[in-house]
Design brief:
The protein has about 170 residues and is mainly alpha-helical. The chain has helices at about 5-15, 25-55, 60-70, 70-105, 115-125, 125-135, 140-160.
Amino acid sequence: MKIKHWQLFTDSLIHPKKLAAYRLLPIGKVIQYVLLLVLFVTIISFIQFITGVGFETSQMKGLKQFVDDIKWLIYPFAFVLLFIINSFTLFVQISIYAFVGLGILKLQNRRGEFRHIWRTAAFAVTLATIFTTISVFITTNNRLVSSISIVITAIFLIIACSKYPIQPKK
């Protein structure tokens, strides 16, 4: 199936019913999509890191001078570290949502395996990830943002699971 990442992105934001069809995509395409999502989160986190370091260290002249002297060394390592941490976190989140999705499939009497629901969860988490990432720049309650993100992902998973094939009666 030849499908562009941009189409996957727009469908994961707007069309939760199509997410069930994407369970048949090759895992390589899904991992590429997740890594592009991680790259977006990492870039936003890195911008926050750059602006946060500049703002917090402006009070201490010696520390600010030290950070300015070694920026070329800190920033590449910070970006790589952020990418690794964000990758790990997002993959764990997707796996947890996939386990929840398996429960939803059982409750809805639908047929599916973990590998299928993992792919669906990878696309279902997109809107919540973008919402959480952008909410960093707005002073909000972190628990509220996390709760809204969980609800958004759960709704997308429920809608997508309703499009999985029905379990045949034995």
